[in-house]
Structure formats: C-alpha cells, structure tokens
Design brief:
CATH superfamily of the largest domain: Type I PLP-dependent aspartate aminotransferase-like (Major domain)
Number of strands: 14
Order of helices and strands: HEEEHHEHEHEHEHEHEEHHHEEHHEEH
Largest sheet: 7 strands, mixed
CATH class of the largest domain: Alpha Beta
Number of helices: 14
Bound molecules: 4'-deoxy-4'-aminopyridoxal-5'-phosphate
Helix content: 25-40%
Strand order of the largest sheet: 4-10-9-8-7-5-6
Radius of gyration: 21 Å
Shape: globular
CATH architecture of the largest domain: 3-Layer(aba) Sandwich
Length: 428
C-alpha cells in the first residue's frame, strides 16, 4: 500500500507545525511509521491522501459513533451554516441541546456548553473547588482528563504523596493539591479520605478508563467513590468525555448505576465539531457564573453549527436498540480477535464497554490498573498496528488508547478486520 502523499505532507508539515501534528498522539510516536493524512471519510471508512481506504476504529477519537459523514448530521450542519457561523448570543439550539442532554443524563439538572473536553474538566474542577471551598482533588493513575495544568500529574506517586507535574511548564504549586491514587483501588481511597477527607474538594475519574487502553471499573470501585464523597462532602466528577453516549445512552453512570455530582462530556456531544460540556446537580451548577461566583466563559461556546452537529447526532442515539446493536458489533470484534489470537498462539487480552474496546498484548487475563497496562507489550502492539494499517485497518496509533466501533460498521467490515488480524498476528 503506497502512502507517498502522506509521506510528502508529513515532511512539509514538520516545517511549520511542531512534530507535524496538532495533537501529539497523531504523530505515531508510539507505533512507528509515518502518520497517515486523510482527506475524506464515509461511514466506517477513512480515505487517505493516496485514496487508500481503511476501516476506521478511531472515529476521530470517539465522536463518530454514527460513522463518518452521517447524512442527517451533515444536512443539519449545512442548514446551520446557511444562517451564520456564530452570534455570540443565545440561540434556540442551545436550549434544545441542554434539554436533550439533561433528559439523556438524569444526574444533570443543568449543563454549560464549552469547546473541548479539556475546558469541561478544567471548569468542573474549579466549580467543585468553588462550591466546597476546598483545594485538594483526587485523580487516578492512567486517567487522562485533558491538558489541564492541575491534572497533568505524574502517575505512581502513591496514596498520600502530593502530585508532581508530568509536564514542564506546569508549576509545582499547581499540582500540589492533586493527589493521585491507583485506579480500581478502593483501599487507597479509604486511606486518603481518612487522612484528609475534610480537605478534598473533588474526586475526578474516568468511569471506564479509556486513556490507558480500555479498563472497565471493578465491582464496587465507583460505588466506593460515591460513598466516600458523600461521607466527606466532596464532589464526585465523572469525566464522561469519552464514555458519555458511548457505553450507554446515559453514559457509564447509567451502565454502572452510580450517580456523580458533576459530569463532563465531549466528543459525541459535538458530533465531530469542537464541543465539550459540564453539568450536574443544580445545587453545584448554580455556583457557576453568571448565577454564582465561579467564573467561566467562552467566545464560541454553544456555537450554532456545533450545536446542530451535536443535536443531530444525539437524536439518532434515541433509536430503539441502538446501543444493543453497537455493543453486539463491538463484541463480534473483540471476541473474534480473541479467538483468532488463541488459535495462532498470540497472547491477547481484550476488554470492552458499549462501543469502546481495548487490546492488550499480554499473557494476563485480567487488567485493572495502570501498572498492569504498562507491563503489556507495547512494541508488539506497534508491529500489529502497522501490519493492520497495511491491510486497510486504522486502529488508534497508541497502545494506550481505547478503540471505538460505530453503528456504521457492518458484519463485512468486522469480518474484513478479523481476516486482516489473522494475517497481522502471523507477522508478529
Ligand atoms: N477527558 C477524557 C476522558 C478524554 O478522553 C479526553 C480526550 N481524549 C479529554 C478529557 C480531553 O478532551 P479534549 O481533547 O476535547 O480537550
């Protein structure tokens, strides 16, 4: 498969764009090779600049749950564009969006639209601190919540040590109030809450971790978060930027039956446009400006074109049986991969939740924590990734990112993926 145009573009891109990309994981650093440049997408397929076709399991990192270039979404966007790109003033579409989101996610009484997942989590943290009058926050190792300074904290610092920044440019003082615990470890949580529960403003968690591959919560973990937050008056934030509308119509909170105080959303809610949102209990949300004193704003927030794409996407998720179908597709993929791997003697562990999945090259049969994810064979994943790419399958170019199935992937697409995987396993 020739990718000459991508190679030429990548050479050009590196002159004026740091690393040639506008978001680091696109650079293929973890898997090797040249990033593929795409110019068109339709349904489950991406088409690169050489017009090679790929079955896509990245879905623009989650938003494209309906498949690419969905007709109703495209038409809604074009209609909105015809009326003007941005007014910087309230619109009916924002009211429709707020009504629909609060109906789909019942823990949300109110919602504020923003422009990215990062903005949503940044604001949720500020709001939780403003609401509680406390500074400390708890996050979990391997969970990513966007590039918010206070959340860019080096993993592995252990239960009671304070955070150190994981990126130059983040002052130590900014992460001093961030405590990092092990994901799926209710014991660690107990220790921290007992020691300093009165200082904790918020716990933020990916209810299914999708930024260390795909790690579902173990039995009782989310329940423990809820119970400690209740006991000590801390705000429980579910970062559902990835899992929202992805693992169930009402997100991970609906799937696992645990209700957060605040929820952050992104990706699917924008249908492919730059959108994020945060929302939750009225008592907390009322503290946000202009109702309350916690400041937050955005020139383009609630943008009419973005609202049109998001609404047209969310409305299609109401179809009876949508999530059952999506999950069946995801199961066909992960079960198929596991079966073939077993047949050819490749150590592969797969996970899934709704329309998201994880692939681990390991002999382990259970992965619940960041250190276990890190112990998997990332180099082997890189070889597999490139072998799949050469066979027309586009996986996330990193061993630490969840994969996504869309409703547009049909049996033939998944069968073709499994055929490609059989050949790719042989190349390992
Ligand atoms: N939270 C989670 C759980 C995410 O997966 C991401 C992005 N992958 C973010 C926050 C940040 O979202 P954005 O890239 O839109 O800023």
């Amino acid at each position: 498969m020739s990718r000459t145009h991508s190679e030429q573009l990548f050479r050009r891109a590196q002159k004026h764009i740091p690393g040639g990309v506008n978001s680091p994981v696109r650079a293929f650093k973890g898997v090797g090779g040249t990033p593929v440049f795409f110019h068109r997408a339709e349904g489950p397929y991406l088409y690169d600049e050489d017009d090679n076709r790929y079955v896509d399991y990245v879905g623009s990192w989650g938003p494209m749950i309906l498949g690419h270039n969905n007709e109703a979404v495209r038409e809604a966007v074009l209609r909105a564009v015809a009326d003007g790109l941005s007014f910087g003033a309230p619109t009916a579409a924002e009211v429709d969006m707020a009504d629909l989101v609060c109906e789909m996610v019942p823990s949300m009484d109110m919602v504020r639209m923003v422009n990215s997942g990062t903005e949503a989590t940044m604001t949720a943290i500020r709001l939780a601190r403003g609401y509680t009058g406390r500074d400390k926050i708890i996050k979990f190792e391997g969970c990513y919540h966007g590039h918010v300074d206070s959340l860019l904290v080096k993993a592995g610092s252990g239960a009671l040590t304070l955070g150190t920044p994981s990126s130059p440019g983040v002052p130590k003082a900014v992460t001093d109030d961030t405590l990092t615990l092990n994901y799926n470890d209710a014991g660690g949580l107990e220790e921290v809450f007992k020691a300093r529960g009165e200082e904790i403003a918020a716990v933020i968690v990916e209810p299914v971790a999708g930024n260390m591959n795909c790690v579902p919560p173990t039995q009782g973990f989310l329940e423990a978060l809820r119970s400690y937050c209740d006991q000590y008056g801390a705000v429980l934030i579910f970062d559902e930027v990835m899992t929202g509308f992805r693992v169930a119509r009402g997100g991970a909170q609906a799937l696992y039956g645990v209700t957060p105080d605040l929820t952050t959303l992104g990706k699917i809610i924008g249908g492919g446009m730059p959108v994020g949102a945060l929302g939750g209990k009225k008592a907390v949300m009322e503290h946000l400006s202009p109702l309350g004193p916690v400041y937050q704003a955005g020139t383009l927030s609630g943008n009419p074109v973005a609202m049109a794409a998001g609404l047209a996407t969310l409305r299609q998720l109401q179809r009876e049986g949508f999530y059952e179908e999506l999950e069946a597709k995801t199961e066909k993929l992960t079960e198929g991969l596991s079966t073939i791997a077993r047949e050819v003697g490749v150590g592969l562990h797969t996970t899934r939740a709704g329309g998201m999945f994880g692939l681990y090259f390991t002999e382990q049969t259970r992965i619940t924590r960041f250190d276990e994810v890190m112990a998997c064979d990332a180099a082997r994943f890189g070889t597999f990734f490139n072998a799949m790419l050469d066979r027309g399958v586009y996986l996330a170019p990193s061993a630490f990112e969840a994969g996504f199935v869309s409703i547009a992937h049909d049996d033939a697409d998944i069968d073709a993926t499994l055929d490609a995987a059989r050949a790719a396993f042989a190349a390992l």
